[in-house]
Amino acid sequence: MAIDLMIMPLSRYFSGDYITPAMRQAWSVGASYKILTSEGARECPPDVPLGGLDATSKRHAALPELIESLRLLPFGIPDSLWDEASDVEPCFYRLELSSLEMLLEEAAEALVAKPSFLGRLVGKKAAPSHFLSAEMFLPVPFSEHFALGNTLTGSVHTAKRELESHTWSSGARPAYEHWIAALEDAIALNQPLVVDM
Question: Is-contact 153 147, C-beta < 8 A?
Answer without folding.
Answer: yes
